[in-house]
User: Fold this.
Amino acid sequence: MTYPPLALTLGDPAGIGPELTVSAWETLRLSEHCFFWLGDPALLNNVIPTEIISTPLEARRVFPHALPVLPLLCTVPVVPGQPNAQNAQTIISSIQQATQLTLSQDASGVVTNPIAKHILAESGFPHPGHTEFLAELCSAPGHEIMMLASPELRVVPVTIHVSLQTAITTLTTQRIVDVARITHHALIRDFGIQSPRLAIAGLNPHAGEAGLMGHEEQTIITPAINILRAQGINAQGPYPPDTMFSATARTRYDAAICMYHDQGLIPLKTLDMAQGVNITLGLPIVRTSPDHGTAFDIARALDHSPRAADARSLIAAIRTASTMVQHRKENAV
Amino acid sequence: MTYPPLALTLGDPAGIGPELTVSAWETLRLSEHCFFWLGDPALLNNVIPTEIISTPLEARRVFPHALPVLPLLCTVPVVPGQPNAQNAQTIISSIQQATQLTLSQDASGVVTNPIAKHILAESGFPHPGHTEFLAELCSAPGHEIMMLASPELRVVPVTIHVSLQTAITTLTTQRIVDVARITHHALIRDFGIQSPRLAIAGLNPHAGEAGLMGHEEQTIITPAINILRAQGINAQGPYPPDTMFSATARTRYDAAICMYHDQGLIPLKTLDMAQGVNITLGLPIVRTSPDHGTAFDIARALDHSPRAADARSLIAAIRTASTMVQHRKENAV
Assistant:
């Protein structure tokens, strides 16, 4: 059984997105993980065969011998390493079209190439990043949550891009319950895990050591765990944050619910910088992205010399999205 | 050139300390890493040869064929797994004597077996833990700082056993400068690193992203880095906490100065739970300990069946202390 292809966005054309796209197609073209690119074919400098498509339906036929491209032309010429806000609209259109095609089921999921928020902000883009923009496009603002996944670990931070102080003061029982519930259901539907095991982190050193080093475990986190368990969700904790990511501890859960950004991202990136995938849960669509930025410092015009940018994270993002789509369809049957 | 032996403390006799001590002697007895034990020989049940010594001077002669023991008898019989506050004074005496013997240069450093703070607290012990007690015994209260070291990473948290909220509100430029300076000098004197490279972590996600997610990088941390550099210390940062512990990033520094407990301990324990060593810097004496607790749940009476407790962290602590002593003596010449 085949599914519609994945939609891969342009990302910032002055970053490494075009190079990553080429590498991903080279690696995946003979696999089942079919995608098409919403981008400007001129950026690829003919280093791989491309074929313009007019509808995602054509992608699977094209994919083994050429990168299927749904063309979106840049407004001004692209200089690698030098982002230009005049191309912001093309970047944004790529995200919009990928999302629309997925909502209409012409594509089966969205994989986004990296963008630079400050470049889009210059052109009036009001969203902190991809994730919030996608949530709005899906009419689900505020429902989005971020999972980071690598071969060894899945983490879901309860708070994301706020100061550590704000992370502490905005932590609530309700937010933990919401994030854990969405994660639980996503592990079943999108990851094929029938009985997900969630590990809930503490906030403080040693998970507060019975209140000696902070009270949030007692007042906020344990009440959330109790609510989750009463709903039949296998949530354990709160665990001391420093020991819960060891090799042994990691085998005991399917995802760690983390109280702040770095509590989840430090162990993930310490273990594996190359293959981390950013997954947005809580939206009606499947969406993944590589776990890194535009890397303007190493971006360069494509030619036939060996690729310099490490495409493993984008490739992992495409494979993960494809697998999620497959699980979701199987679970829907 | 040989140095005085290391003094290994009793720790809580109802924990795994006695078993770890036996394993450490078995592993190290033919090495240069000589130690004697300040404990109760009855606890060892004759599973290894022991020899009572009356002074540390005898330890090096004894060490290859028997564990040298400076005897300290428990007050009440020890039941493995069931700590008893009536033995607290023996536990405390062991730490006191080890420290005194090191201050008098009869021993070259202190390695502590794990204690249970709540058991000592029951008997009126007023210190939060070993480290603070040792600082007082050395007449250096408040000067102690904690380094955690594994084969892959050294971390020094600026704040330790306080809530995350307190860690944020008590963070000061002066404290970062003090901790980084002590670390810098210890890396030279005790670790033999001529030109130490310090990586200073940010506090907030993405190191605050120019103030968008927190201001402490701008108001507290960067000023500390500037002061350190003006003093000739190679301090770089503030680095985004999630990426600074990756395999590549770790090669670029000798120690990471971390803003709170879990920022340093999460990456260290994620990489290596077995061989982490806790090192107290800022004291006149060398002191290390294993990076785990008493493990009352797996403690048992010693017999000739295979050892169950993992002694790698204690063995690493002894080796580390021994190497620190050697560097310190060489640097003092």
Observations:
- The longest strand of chain A covers residues 145-150.
- The two ends of chain A are 12 Å apart (CA to CA).
- Residues 312-332 of chain A form the longest helix (21 residues).
